Amino acid sequence: MPRICFTLQVKPDRLAEYRRRHAPVWREMLDALRDAGWHDYSLFLRDDGLLVGILLTDDFAAAQAAMEATEVNARWQAEMAEFFESGRPDHAMQVLTEVFNLDRQLGETA
């Protein structure tokens, strides 16, 4: 299953509240992410506001579209937009290209 990594920028003066809003995330949002195909999804936040997300999914475009179709995602994104420099975070993700994977390279040489 492909691993996706993306970045976003949280406003530095909003970090504490951003963290608070994620502990815990609404149950219906968690269920929607799972049902849309987001697996092993984690967010990492640096002190300057750099947010890095990592997830596993069979088809990221399909997983994003499935979330876009949910009412809970619209509510969540509307609430989260104020924390980001770019507005709605689900529309501003900067997906990174994987350049190294230990397990893949070890498997290729075995």
TrEMBL record:
It comes from the Bacteria. One of its GO terms (biological process) is rhamnose catabolic process. Coiled coil: none annotated. Pfam families: rhaM. One of its GO terms (molecular function) is racemase and epimerase activity, acting on carbohydrates and derivatives. This is L-rhamnose mutarotase. It comes from Catellatospora citrea.
